[in-house]
Structure formats: structure tokens, C-alpha cells
Amino acid sequence: MWQHRSGGRPRVFGHRGAMGYAPENTFASFERAVEIGVDAIELDVHLTADGEVVVIHDHELDRTTDGEGIVGEKTLAELKSVDAGRRFGEEFTGQRIPTLGEVLEWAQGRCVLDIEIKGGPWPYPGLEAKVVELIREHEMTDETMVISFHHPTVATVKSLAPEIAVGTLWSARPLDPVGVARGAGANAILPMWPYCDAETVERAHLAGLSVHPWTVSEPRAIERLIALGVDSICSNHPDVVVGALRKHSGG
Questions:
Q1: Annotated catalytic residue, options 4, 46, 57, 151
Q2: Is 138 one of the annotated active-site residues of the chain?
Q3: Which one of 36, 74, 123, 148 is most buried, counting C-beta atoms within 10 A?
Q4: Considering the entire predicted model, what is its pTM?
Q5: pLDDT per residue as tens digits for the range 118-131
Q6: Domains annotated on the chain, with CATH
Q7: pLDDT band, very low/low/confident/very high, at 177 (cuts 50, 70, 90)
Q8: ∠ at Cα 99 (147, 169), nearest 5°?
Q9: Of residues 195, 201, 192, the one with CA closest to residue 169
């Protein structure tokens, strides 16, 4: 899944599931993404006050749930008591913040996971080791990639688990994207899509790195990425990517 396949179609990644259609990082969103036909689901993890790995994007609860406060200062029980769906739409009332273990168990045989480890401004000492432990426990080492904007985190995961694929995220183009990836022991680069160009893709592929741009739902931009030969395209609306790929292949 994480190796570059010359001539292969880009894989479809659902950003936080299918967050254009369901509340992000919830089972409703993950299930919608699978219904659409994604190859992988991208999600985000934090660490609770009592040492549990939970799936949520923000460091704070306010934007996506009916709770308040900082995720890392809450226990798992406190986080499970908040509603993670109602803010998106009344029909999603009752969606809860999942644990990473719950999602790994659910994903077995369904899809690959792209796990982003969150860090600053509130870093979580030991989170990398807990993520690795959960991936191994659920026998998902071949169906998971761990990614982060904090590249020392990427290097830590690789040192703990050489068998798990890792990737470097970035939201501006580094002077040397391949050098950055190699420095972290990465298998892949994940550029913000406007900074994904032909030179970057070519250099990454020559270095044996796969390329996974994020996050785009605009058809013309998706067509551009397909033409560049990227290895996946991550979208809030993965059905748009599926449609573009079908059109591109003449299907």
C-alpha cells in the first residue's frame, strides 16, 4: 500500500473518514468512507489524561463536540461522555470519540489506516510507543502508516517499529523534501496538495518514496494530481476522487 507503484492508479484516502458528509473522526465518517470505496482512512490521535489513545483532530473539544476543554486533560470516560456528532447534524447525535484500538479492530479487513500523531502545542510523551503497541496488538502493521508534521515523531516511530511504514507531513515545500524524509527514516512524503509538483514527485519516486498529497476536493486539482503520478489523493469528499479516477480510466 505504501510503496510507489509505477503506472498504478492513485489510491483514494478519506480525510478523517469522509468528513464532507459525516462528523470527522467518528465511526459514521469512517463507515461512509468505506461505502464510497476508499483504499485508506486518515485519522488523528491524541493521548488522554489516563493514558488512552483517542481519535480526534483538535487539541480542544469545542469545535467538533458538545464538550469543552483540552483533550489531554480529560480521562477516557470524560471524553466518551461528550457527543461528537451533533454539531455536524442532528442525525449524527450519539456519535462518540473512538479510541484508536476500537478503530484498528473495526478496520481489520475493511481498509488501511493512515494515523497522524498530534503533538505541539501540547506534546504527549510516550504516545508514539502506545500507537505502535496498539498497531501490533491488532496485527495491522502491514495495513497502517504513521505520519506526523513533527518529524522527530516520525523518526521515533520508525526506530520503535521498523516494520511500520511512516511518512513526513508538510504544509509548505521544504528545500529538500527527500532529505527531510530520509532524515526521519520515512517511507513516504505527504505534501499539502498545492506544494505537490512534478519535480517533488519525480525526486521522491526516484528515492523510493511514495507521495500522498492532501487534502483536495476540487476536480481540476484532482486531475492535476492524477497527471503528476502521485500514489494517493486524500479528500474530504472521496467520492469526487473516485469519480475523477473513473473518468480518467474511461470507466
A1: 57
A2: no
A3: 148
A4: 0.96
A5: 977 778 999 999 99
A6: 11-47+112-249 (3.20.20.190)
A7: very high
A8: 10
A9: 192
